[in-house]
Amino acid sequence: MKVIPKLPDKFFVTGTDTGIGKTLVSAMLTIGLHADYWKPVQSGLDEGMTDTQRVKKWTRFDDSHFHKETYLLSEPLSPHASAAIDGVTIQMRNFQIPEPRHEYLIVEGAGGLMVPLNDQDMIIGLIKMLKLPVLLVARSSLGTINHTLLTLEQLRRYDIRVLGVVLNGPDNPGNTEAIEKYGDVNVFGTVQALEEINKETIKNEFKRIFLA
């Protein structure tokens, strides 16, 4: 079985919003591709964990798959606001793609594209600077067509390659069809609600969505 279409060896996972499922999808990709994972900017903790710690817990991979955050900020706010509280200025020149130790590298963003990093730069500028293609995560429910099409339009304005979309939530064939048609993009599939998130369940979701 092959990944369809073949994914590049490095790509960026972004979302239409915060809390949209980027970390879950990133964990699916990390385990399914036996990949490295890197979260360049982490703002605050969720239930006492960073996203890197959460992906490590879910995948049960060893430390060789994980790279240190460039900025680890204390408050669960937009990076620019959390950095200000910490007395830090996020500098774009400090972001360097780590050397992967495995075939693939998954890079997870913070929030959506227009989340500020500092007074001048936003997440979309980081993606552009890193020269990475994007996999977009969006909700499947009402409102997703507008949010997803706006995000796709912004990515294309910046000439950033879009690999496709993964939806998160209840199956909604109408929304899937509309996003594919009006967004001119491939929707890989929809992540189902998982009673328990662990290595086995997320690996099964990866196979269902990304493998033929």
The CATH topology is given as Rossmann fold
Strand content: 15-25%
Mean of pLDDT: 95
Q: How many helix segments?
A: 7
SSE ordering: EHEEHEEHEHEHEHEH
Biggest beta sheet attributes: 7 strands, parallel
Number of domains: 1
| DSSP E strands, number | 9
Please tell me how large the radius of gyration is: 16 Å
Strand order of the largest sheet: 4-2-6-1-7-8-9
CA-based shape: globular
The CATH architecture designation is 3-Layer(aba) Sandwich
CATH class: Alpha Beta
Distance between the termini: 6 Å
What layout of secondary structure does this protein have?
Blueprint: E1 10-15, H1 22-32, E2 36-38, E3 41-43, H2 51-59, E4 66-67, E5 71-73, H3 79-86, E6 105-108, H4 123-130, E7 134-139, H5 144-157, E8 162-168, H6 173-183, E9 187-191, H7 199-210
Parallel strand pairs: 1-6, 1-7, 2-4, 2-6, 3-5, 7-8, 8-9
Helix pairs in contact: 1-2, 1-7, 5-6
Task: List key phrases describing it.
7 helices; single chain; seven-stranded parallel sheet; globular; Rossmann fold; 212 residues; alpha/beta; two-stranded parallel sheet; 18% strand
Give a brief rundown of this model.
By secondary structure, this protein is α/β, with parallel strands linked by helices. It has helices at residues 22-32, 51-59, 79-86, 123-130, 144-157, 173-183, 199-210, and strands spanning 10-15, 36-38, 41-43, 66-67, 71-73, 105-108, 134-139, 162-168, 187-191.
